[in-house]
Amino acid sequence: MSRTSIPSRCIAVVLLLLTAAPVPAHAIEDAPGSPQAFLARFADAWQRRDLDAYSGLLTDDFRFYFGDEENKARHPGGWGKEDELASASHLFKGRADRPDRPRARSLRLDFVAVSVLADPDFPCDREHHALIDAREVRLAIELEGGDHLGAVGHHAYRVVRGSVDEAWRLRRWDEEPAASLLAAAACADTTGTVSGSPILVGNRLWSVAPNPSRLGENATLTFAVEKDGEAVDAALYDLAGRQVRVLARGPSAAGTRTIAWDGRDAHGTLTRAGVYFLHLRAGERTWRERVVRVP
Questions:
Q1: Which of 147, 166, 175, 202 is packed most tightly, with the most Cβ within 10 A?
Q2: Is residue 83's pLDDT more than 90?
């Protein structure tokens, strides 16, 4: 079956799913636990048709962003985790109500060029965040009935890992990413320091790691205070907008500062797994970030 004989929406779904197909062993030769090795684990889950394993490799706030204009317009906010897992299930099992979308009989994927960069969202935390830039991804698909489909593309995977199991997980997947999505701001100001501590530059004045974090481990907020005595106000809220805990309130010394959240509320009770919102104000700068806690 040629690509033009498949509906465009189906093509997009198949291309999306097959970027995670089996990776040849020679393509990834990095040490276990490296961001590159994550791709092999990612591919293995697909090869074994293991939805549970694949689901465990995606963060709860996972997003996929399409590269073609048709699907960009149809899904401007990309796809979430539920969409991705539903599509994987359709590919593995086919759809009884859509005979034009048969299941894949075999999947093959080659990563021709892979490099690891700083995550543009967290350029100062290479220990817990990374961007895997796969410049050339080649895939081949055999569908039931003997039809074939193939493609070559550029994909970027933003991965994050926790401090307990040290396992990398995928939080963002960009198909045909623009160059601006791959460039990270400088982490530290090398032209000088304030009170002996480096000040983060640009808009990257903060980070939370690991995010998501597991129950029982700390999520550490790192941020910059530009002037001695600047007021810092940091608090966590739940999805209903209720304040969960105040992490910091009052003046601070200049420099790079860190605050660890142990996952407990203002009463010392361990919070449930879920999504929380961190509101931070340092001087005149404000920031709002989603913080995810997983079991």
A1: 175
A2: yes
Residue range(s) defining the domain that contains residue 221? 206-294
Closest CA to 252 of 202, 190, 194, 185: 194
Task: Examine the domain organization and report whether 106 and 250 are in the same domain.
Answer: no
Is the pLDDT reported for residue 284 higher than 50?
Answer: yes
CA distance readout (Å), 149 to 48, 104, 141, 228: 20, 10, 5, 61
Q: What pTM did the predictor assign? A: 0.59
Could you please report the per-residue DSSP string of 133-148? EEEEEEEEEEETTS-E
Number of structural domains in the chain:
2
At position 279, the amino acid (one-letter code) is: H
Instruction: Encode pLDDT of 124-135 as tens digits.
Output: 677 788 899 999
81 and 164 belong to one structural domain: yes
Query: Residue 258 belongs to what H/E stretch?
Result: strand 255-261
**What are the DSSP calls for 197-223, one per residue?**
B----TT--EEEESSSEETTS-EEEEE
274: in domain: yes
User: Could you give phi then psi for residue 198, rounded to 5 degrees?
Assistant: -70, 145
Distance separating alpha carbons of residues 227 and 210, to the nearest angstrom: 27
